[in-house]
């Protein structure tokens, strides 16, 4: 069985765009007629340029190769151009292609992917959700309203979720880590207080940031949140200096989580070795794919650390997360995004029920992709999947960040 064809589909979820402006889906086909689906969570360059990168990686290393040879495909791609080091764009391309190979292998053997990864470890996967506006909420006001966030959290708990994530401490700026405004700290405390009062001990609070603070600022913010006992303090400092994050972890009594902007075992091992985080959040469409993150999970076991796969993309990456999560002993939980478009794109083949996901038993990733729907929703903008803000933190008028709802760009 050899890989013969590649198709790349850039699909855009409808407004308000939970999951980003676009998703990069890949479809691989073999000479035996089996097709597999993957998703590249890559946003350093635009989708047109990324399509060329994906095709280049495929034609250099995957074309004519057996989809079984995951290790060899990884080493060839990782070493591209004499570099042999982590590269977010190249590994983003590889990751989606690698996921598609696992889908093919599972279909060829009539087994779910997790059965090829050591078998089923977890029969139910604890899921968490980001807090999104309810139908009665005004989206523009939601991101700075502790009361609306508390209502959304309570609704999630009523659905069965036992953990909710929110990130009111913006902005995320291209200027790197900054000292938060006192208003940002006060807003973050107000969110934690309102949500904790609403859900009590029925759900864990997952406090999200995206690497926007310097070390001292992250420490101040984290210490202010300690009374509300969040389960994690997510990526408090930029990912380019893990030692800074270690200093935060040593001075804040909330477990630090990180990983959505990291790739390969090399970067995740550094996090574990320095004690920067106890919870790893790989995005499988960027981090090196399923097999590479299976290795990371094994390394994490040695440090008594847990895995919580990240999702801010489409349902194919989610499917990959589910199969990894089903196969590892040190799973904490998995992120989910529930929208009608996510559900329709895989024809309801994966579901969150009562706050948990049951791993599928169907072959491969266990999903049925609606290819026509994906093609009927092309991306026609110029922006990236997500974009950083140019202006710095506003210490006078306050700050806000519209969570998962990027305007069309």
Task: Report what the structure shows.
Strand 2 and strand 3 (35-40) form a beta hairpin. By secondary structure, this protein is an alpha/beta fold. It has a domain at 116-366: TIM Barrel (Alpha-Beta Barrel), CATH 3.20.20. The model has no long low-confidence stretch (mean pLDDT 96). Strands 4, 5, 6, 7, 8, 9, 10, 11, 12 and 13 form a ten-stranded mixed β-sheet that branches. It has a three-stranded antiparallel β-sheet with strand order 1-2-3. Helix 5 (146-158) packs parallel to helix 6 (182-199), helix 7 (215-225) packs parallel to helix 8 and helix 9 (264-274) packs parallel to helix 10. The chain has 13 helices and 13 strands.
How do the helices and strands line up, and which of them pair or pack?
Elements: E1 3-11, E2 23-30, E3 35-40, H1 47-62, H2 70-78, H3 88-109, E4 125-130, H4 139-142, H5 146-158, E5 163-166, H6 182-199, E6 204-208, H7 215-225, E7 232-234, H8 242-251, E8 256-258, H9 264-274, E9 279-280, H10 289-302, E10 306-307, H11 315-327, E11 334-336, H12 340-345, E12 352-353, E13 356-357, H13 371-375
Parallel strand pairs: 4-5, 4-11, 5-6, 6-7, 7-8, 8-9, 9-10
Antiparallel strand pairs: 1-2, 2-3, 4-13, 12-13
Helix pairs in contact: 1-3, 2-3, 5-6, 6-7, 7-8, 9-10, 10-11
């Amino acid at each position: 069985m050899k890989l013969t064809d590649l198709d790349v589909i850039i699909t855009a979820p409808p407004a308000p765009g939970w999951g980003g402006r676009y998703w990069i889906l890949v479809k691989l086909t073999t000479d035996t007629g089996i097709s597999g689906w993957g998703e590249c969570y890559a946003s350093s360059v635009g989708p047109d340029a990324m399509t060329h990168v994906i095709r280049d990686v495929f034609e250099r290393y995957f074309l004519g190769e057996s989809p079984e040879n995951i290790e060899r495909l990884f080493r060839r791609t990782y070493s591209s151009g004499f570099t042999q080091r982590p590269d977010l764009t190249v590994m983003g391309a590889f990751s989606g292609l690698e996921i598609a190979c696992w889908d093919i292998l599972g279909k060829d053997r009539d087994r779910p992917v997790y059965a090829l990864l050591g078998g089923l470890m977890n029969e139910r996967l604890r899921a968490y959700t980001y807090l999104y506006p309810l139908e009665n909420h005004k989206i523009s006001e939601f991101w700075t309203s502790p009361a609306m966030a508390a209502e959304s959290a309570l609704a999630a708990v009523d659905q069965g979720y036992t953990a909710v994530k929110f990130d009111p401490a913006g902005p995320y700026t291209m200027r790197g880590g900054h000292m938060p405004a006192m208003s940002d700290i006060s807003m973050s405390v107000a969110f934690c207080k309102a949500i904790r009062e609403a859900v009590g001990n029925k759900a864990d609070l997952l406090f999200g940031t995206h690497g926007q603070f310097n070390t001292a600022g992250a420490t101040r913010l984290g210490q202010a949140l300690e009374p509300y006992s969040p389960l994690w303090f997510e990526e408090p400092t930029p990912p380019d200096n893990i030692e800074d994050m270690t200093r935060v972890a040593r001075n804040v009594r909330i477990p630090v989580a990180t990983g959505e902007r990291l790739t390969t075992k090399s970067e995740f091992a550094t996090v574990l070795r320095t004690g920067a985080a106890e919870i790893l959040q790989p995005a499988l469409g960027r981090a090196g794919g399923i097999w590479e993150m299976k290795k990371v999970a094994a390394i994490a076991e040695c440090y008594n650390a847990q895995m919580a796969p990240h999702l801010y993309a489409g349902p194919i990456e989610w499917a990959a997360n589910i199969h990894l999560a089903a196969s590892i002993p040190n799973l904490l939980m998995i992120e989910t995004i529930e929208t009608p478009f996510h559900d329709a794109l895989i024809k309801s083949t994966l579901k969150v029920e009562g706050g948990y996901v049951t791993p599928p038993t169907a072959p491969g990733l266990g999903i049925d992709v609606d290819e026509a729907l994906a093609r009927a929703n092309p991306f026609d903008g110029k922006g990236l999947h997500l974009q950083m803000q140019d202006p710095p933190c506003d210490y006078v008028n306050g700050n806000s960040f519209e969570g998962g709802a990027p305007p069309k760009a």
